[in-house]
User: Fold this.
Amino acid sequence: MAEINNTELVDFAVTARKYKTLLTTKYLQRKVWTEPNPQEIISYIPGTIVKIFVTEGQSVKKGEALLLLEAMKMQNRVKMPFDGTVRKINVGEGDKIAKNTLLIEIA
Amino acid sequence: MSSLEQDILELQEKRAIVELGGGEKAIEKQKELGKLTARERIVALLDTGSFHEYDMFVEHEERNFGMDKKVLAGDGVITGTGSIFGSPVCIFAQDFTVMGGSLGLKHARKITKIMDHALKMKIPCVGINDSGGARIQEGIGALAGYGEIFYRNTMASGVIPQISVILGPCAGGAVYSPALTDFVFVVENISKMFITGPNVIESVLGEKISQEDLGGARVHAEITGNAHFYAKTEQECFEQIKTLISLIPRNNTQKAIKAAPIAPTFRKEIADIIPSDPKQPYDVRDIIRSLTDGSGFLEVHELFAPNIVVGFARIDGETIGFVANQPLYLAGVLDCDASDKAARFIRYCDSFNIPIVTLEDMPGYLPGVDQEHAGVIRHGAKVLYAYSEATVPKITVILRKAYGGGYIAMNSRHLGADFVFALPSAEIAVMGPEGAANIIFAKEIKEAADPNAMRAEKVKEYVDKFANPFVAASKGYIDAVVEPAEIRSQLLHALELAKMKDDQRPAKKHGIPPF
Assistant:
């Protein structure tokens, strides 16, 4: 039989009351939600950056392609969400990236 | 020598060849990995001398890629029948020493044949998985084989118990047969399950992860919930399987075989286990053990979502399924995983005629963006569905907290519970006293000269008036307020009364549970 490793009782708030209890590994490893920043282009799928169409400082219209992200044998065009400028490009062509990677910062 | 004697000798030689599987070298490699061979596993699990092998001389029919020159012993899988504590079972074990236990069409057909046999004979089917995956040389034939197994897993679901034992790699499509079965057993350092392995992940993403960290036994037992039982060794795993088989019926038309009743041996009064302060934790498994025959309890999903405890035990010799909130972990809240875990277990008990005893002590659902976004509504609904749908005897004992949605979900009278008991320490209310006081007396608290003092006063007022079992008792929502020492006798009586329970559901093809 196996044991769960966490053995320290903590105060755990459920509604307006705090309970003494142990936490689970999965709870401790959970992703904490952060508000999405519209000025950050984040990868929604893991894959390879095949081509980057823009350069830093460039003005881009809403809907224009920023880069090509190949994932699961499919080439996805990542598009500009609003009219603006490319502030910083954090990836290069050929990079393999995970999901939720910050690709491009825009303003 | 007569010709029959000659034939017998030849048979023995042929058997010996097949029994050697992939040969001595491959067996040596298997041993180096710390694993038993497929044949040793069957022998270790079944009653001594009970194994009867089928389809020993089945051969594959692949003619491409040089496969026409390859002879594979038993086509990489051993199938047959035997018994566990005298109960008949069908069994198959993939043999990793034979071409990595890879699954070709004939290998799959041996498995589907023994599954068909189990379903027709209405006996449990145990599958031991140890395979590199699809036999690529056989191409679509291997895919067909997997599909035919999945179809049978689904047909047999809820009719005969299906048990999967992962004793090696189980990757790609192969994982879905275990996922469709009732109980999955894993062993530390031996079991590996994933859809895409570390190599694919590294080539696609550049992320390096070990097989163990990606889909090892612990990951599936604790994080994903794919595995229901976790053991340190293969032998411990086989003991777990035997105990499980002894507790469940052979099929959905039977009751589990009754054992001789024995009194609980765990000697601690329930009143001494539960702290009176509702904020203090205790191990609800101590309550279970103080109620069950010989204080036995086979916990299912021990490591996964430990904030709810589920498992099998006996009361008066009969198998009972326990579902209990566990204040020791996450204060015993219901969250996505705990809901999934409980709902699945309740449906298992209902399919196999096992009465359900629910022990309730929970403060509500786990708050948080991660829970809401993970679908706590959809998952939480599974608990309501499973309890409402179940027609086996359903008994609830409210030990302490029963607040809000949690009160309804944990087999309340409103969902069709047959018996609901509460300890005098029970708090059955729409929410915890602090939360309720903050809402109901918001104005008084805000306008008071000393809001904190007013809040404390109003909380106390709420506790005195509502945080008890007597409001619910006055409405008939609970049948009896009982003393801790009376719980076992109440359960014995209720279970006896419910033996002939006949609860019908409207005719339907099947419901639409919130999957």
Remarks:
- Residues 40-106 of chain A form a domain with the OB fold (Dihydrolipoamide Acetyltransferase, E2P) fold (CATH 2.40.50.100).
- Chain A touches chain B through 31 residues (CB under 8 Å).
- Chain A has a mean pLDDT of 91.
